[in-house]
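Side project, low priority. Logging it here so it doesn't get lost.
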Amino acid sequence: MKYFFIILLFSNYLFSQNKIIGSYNHSEKTFAIGDTIYQASHFSQGYARITDATFFGLIDSTNVLVIPVVYENMGFLKDGLIVVKKDKKSGYLDTSGNIIIPFIYDLADDFKNGIAIVQKNNKCGIIDKKGNQLSPLLYDHVDKFDNDQSGLARVSRAKKWGFINKTGKEIIPCIYQKANFFREGLALVTKENGTSGYLDATGKVIIPFAEYTRAGNFKDGKAEVHKGNTIFFINKLGETIK
């Protein structure tokens, strides 16, 4: 029994030694561990990033260092995960420093609503919080979903544009030379032959393709279009507004 208590006390001692506690200066936004001073961010969701100007770590609201200052870059806590970079590769940690998604990506974005944009070998896609690929990494560019009013994300592949949904499905195929964000339920797209038209969020052509020399997004139910030197407005049925 005597040896049991000795082992228990020694285990508790090791645990306390592993918990690194510092002091946070709110006015100067610094965090000190002994004589070492780190720059600190503001607290968000009970955590703040700290850095020695080379590496990053994370502290909690009790001034405990929860993620060591060993990462080359660090995002913000979003959806319970933090994107970090180590050895030039990006992955995701939880707030205890556990690796949730391994360091396999060249670039990775913060999670939002359970989705993050990642890049590997110059190709992009989206993943969920378990690291599952919702879309294959085959796009040259993926926009954020909150950039668009439709709930879709604009993507490009082989210099052509389309849209995917949050499950990674390509709702509007990458066949357009240009594609604007959706505004008021319609997106202006341009074909390789230079004609432009307007699609809804299912990819259906709502306003037929025409040889506009210039066309704009819808605002307040109308869009400005140009044909040669003629400038006029159209409604959502493609009719000229007089």
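Brief comment: Residues 2-18 form the longest helix (17 residues).
Revisit when time allows.
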